[in-house]
Amino acid sequence: MNSKARKNLSRIIFRTRGLYMLIALGTAVALKHRFHESTSILLFVIGIAVIVLAQIFRVWAAAYLWGRQAVQEVEADFLCTSEPYAYIRNPFYLGNLFIGLGVCLMINEWYAYILFLISYVFVYSIVIPYEEDFLEEKFGEGYMKYKNQTHRLIPNFRPYRGNLKILPDWKAGILGEIHAPVFLAIISLIIYILFVG
User: Fold this and answer.
1) Of 27, 84, 152, 165, which has the highest C-beta tally within 10 A?
2) What's the domain range around 85?
3) Cα–Cα dist 186/153, whole Å
4) What is the pLDDT of residues 125-157, one digit of tens each?
5) Number of domains observed in the structure of the chain
6) Is-contact 127 13, C-beta < 8 A?
7) Which helix (H) or strand (E) holds 136?
8) What is the pLDDT of residue 67?
9) 114 vs 75, residue with greater confidence
10) CA quadruple 87, 92, 93, 94: dihedral positive or negative?
């Protein structure tokens, strides 16, 4: 595949990045329902707790992007290296990992984890390099320095010390993420009705 075709594919995957994990988890719910399985209330509650903590983490990250994270095209007005971004380059995608694992806990079937992890690796093995290429092109040496001192998905214990300090916009962060808790509440209710209640 030539570089133009790869870039076009990456753009399509970026625009539809939430769809693949939704399909994977929806398939797991359908399979569990087909086999008439159930989930214990304890695992359901633990799954909810993991999702809530991961969503709070995402709101924290969104506040430092001023609520501009749910985009259809890769864009950046500034290179954010403050707060969560000082420890990890992709806090949203780490949050998504834990949200997906929380849903898998609520489903409580081995195939849910496999389907979710396959979709997660598929999406972010394409999306993250695509975003990194954009940021490297736009911010050059500043981004390369940041990239060399932080990890994609594993937080550092020592924060990156960037020159630009961003102040959070909590209102924009919350409003930018408002769709996710509503959507997750609907999914959780469906799982509860089908497998717990």
Assistant:
1) 84
2) 3-196
3) 27
4) 999 999 999 999 999 999 999 999 999 999 999
5) 1
6) yes
7) helix 110-139
8) 67
9) 114
10) positive
